[in-house]
Amino acid sequence: MTRPLARLGGIERRFGAVLALDGADLEIRAGEVHGVLGANGAGKSTLLNVLGGMLAPDAGVVEIEGRAVRLGSPRDAWALGIALVHQHFTLVPRLSALENLALGAGHRRGLAGDLEKLMARTGLRVPLDARVEQLGVGDRQRIEILKALLRDPRVLVLDEPTAVLTPDEVDGLFGLLKELAADGRAVVLVAHKLDEVLGVADRITVLRNGRTVLTGPSAGRSVPELVRAMVGGDAVDPIALGLTGVDAGATGAMSRPPAERGETTTSARALHAGGVVVRLRGAALADRSGPGVHGVDLEIRRGEIVGVAGVEGNGQRALALLASGRAVPDSGSAELPSGIGFIPQDRSTEGLIAEFDLVENVGLALQREPEYVRGPWMRWDAVRDAAERIRERFEVAAPSVTTLAGALSGGNQQRVIVGRELTLARDFLVAENPTRGLDVAAAAFVHAELRRMATEGVGVLLVSTDLDEVLGLSNRVYAIARGRLHDVPEERRTREGVGAFMLGGTADG
Fold first, then answer.
1. Which residue in 196, 113, 215 sits closest to 158, CA to CA?
2. Which end of the chain, N or C, is more open, meaning fewer C-beta atoms within 10 Å of its C-beta?
3. Residues 185 and 37 in one domain
4. In this structure, are 119 and 222 located in the same domain?
């Protein structure tokens, strides 16, 4: 048996009335990639924040190479060779990518050269001179990973690192993680795509309700087994699992056209779409962090889900802002309805205010809705009722609607945003990576809600870096490349076919 580099035993942690960890255990061994799984609110991020020195446990022990330690800060963890890539970004927005990386690496000599080698090795390239506030979530995630790798850690902990990376980048990152483990280091990976974790992890630990309920080798484990351990039942939505075949243990099913998989084609399963609800004509919008969009012609009808796939930084952000009415086109036109919901790409900076409770965060979005205002005043009783409905229907793990948003896990924050924006989407919904950070059960619920919205006559624009999500949910599929939309013919709606459009804007690449 390989030696444990780190061990957390009987860890307990409370946040007020919320018991986040209830005696959780985790043993991390040298030479292994260790996958940590669990539903939203299971305690994964809290446990890893204890290891990373971000949080002190209320009870339990933390050991590094058999010696009990007290980690009072991230600096203490760094000194012991522990680097944590956070689910929520810890970058300084007004500094450049290079300046943020220099802060993390201690301004050492030769940093630029080391970065070039690291970016070439990992495939994780970022615009070093751009300010972080100008970058999308994908670039910010890459910076966080590069910042941790620059420290040359003995224990590398990654909390949801793949949610906004491209498939090629995920493959490159996982290859690097295996290299690090083979070099005698330990890697801890939290991810919601269970087939991804099974493909890279040597061992698995599953948390449920703050306790460790399963731990052991990943060999021989199946997706359904892990789902049962995580949520106490089976997830029925294969898209949420990252799979689309009948066998949940299969992989690569999306590489074949729907007809070859024995499925109903996109057109055949499409709902009878109604009238046009959104119309963009020659729409263009500049974007400081990317190419923006140019000459976009797009119509979305009631009752359909239109999916847009693309490598991050190719204009998705500008398209979402135009379609949701958050930006006015520089040229061209955008005809939009009044009842629009918008699920943004970054919940921590655009979706919620951490210092506000759930009622206040819901009220921020409902302030222009007639049933929630009376003259210039908010009807807080009605807003509270709406927040309570969202908490119950979307199973937000919060003791009450007076809980601060910042006290929730990332997944539960996403549930609040999704529930709130579905309330607003009477006519049209723009969803940017709506299941980012959600566990398989919650992702399945959101997918069902998107389908329900379409069934009820709402038009849906789904912008997602998850190709399985786009292909599995959409009635029509577009790829975006260098700021231009490309309609993907039905016979090309495979991972390879859409990927070619994403990279080159043509089916032939």
1. 196
2. N
3. yes
4. yes
Rounded to 5°, angle at Cα 474 from 469 and 476: 135
Amino acid identity, position 437? G
DSSP 3-state of 240: coil
User: Is residue 214 scored above 50 in pLDDT?
Assistant: yes
Q: Which of 395, 450, 393 is nearest to 425 (CA)?
A: 450
The answer to whether residues 237 and 254 belong to one domain is: no
Whole-structure pTM value: 0.69
Query: Is 344 a member of any domain?
Result: no
* Other residues' Cβ atoms within 10 Å of the Cβ of residue 63: 15
Confidence of residue 110 (pLDDT cuts 50, 70, 90): confident
Domain of residue 171, residue span? 4-249
> In residues, how long is the chain?
509
Find all residues with CB under 8 Å of 375, minimum gap 6, and list them: none
Q: Given strand 428-432, what is the order of strands in its sheet?
A: 340-343, 428-432, 459-463, 305-309, 476-481, 484-487
Would you give the DSSP letter of residue 508? T
- Please tell me the total count of domains within the chain: 3
- Is residue 217 situated within a structural domain? yes
Asked whether the CA dihedral 402, 408, 410, 415 is positive or negative, the reply is: negative
Q: Note whether 55 and 81 are same-domain residues.
A: yes
* Contact present, 3 and 63 (Cβ < 8 Å): no
Which domain-ending residue is among 423, 446, 470?
A: 423
Q: Report pLDDT digits (tens) over 364-419.
A: 999 888 999 998 899 999 999 999 999 999 889 898 999 999 888 878 898 899 99
Asked if 186 and 29 touch (Cβ cutoff 8 Å), the reply is yes
